[in-house]
Amino acid sequence: MMSKTAVHAVKAVVALAELSEEGFQGAGSIADRIGAPQNYLGKLLQTLARAGVVQSQKGLGGGFRLAKPAEQIRLFDIVDPIDNLSRWTGCLLGGAMCSQDAPCAMHEGWAIAREAYLGMLKTSTVANVLPKGRLAAGR
To answer: Where are the domains of the chain?
Structure first.
């Protein structure tokens, strides 16, 4: 359900969590680490910086780092700015007339799937997806 861009965003934030003690990381080193194109990842990280997930710093010694501890960053916080999950409130088939009172054929199934997916993203943190023992102490 997650777009390829959102997967890269999650991988980048996980990489930053693993490297958190090392300070700011350049987009190039993160891109190499996760196998993503550098320019693409730089723009993606800027989107996450605007969303408050990461911090960015220009200049020598600059780059990106987590804006808060991995335990406080939900996967939803990473995926929503990329995949615009907030728009997932409507009908799967795009029907303007679909509602609880007059559901389309996919209404109930989509509601169950949507709530399960969004619930998982809202209750899982970056710390939850880190390989065991890979979270750096501190930040």
So the answer is: 4-129
CATH topology assigned to domain 4-129: Arc Repressor Mutant, subunit A (1.10.10)
Coil vs helix vs strand at 74: strand
- Cα–Cα distance for residue pair 131/58, rounded to 1 Å: 30
The model carries a pTM of 0.86
Distance CA 24, CA 109 (A): 43
Q: Hey, what are 69's tokens?
A: 């501890």
**Rounded CA separation 37/27 (Å):** 9
Residue 46 has pLDDT above 80, yes or no: yes
Q: In terms of Cα–Cα distance, which of 62, 39, 46, 38 is closest to 54? A: 46
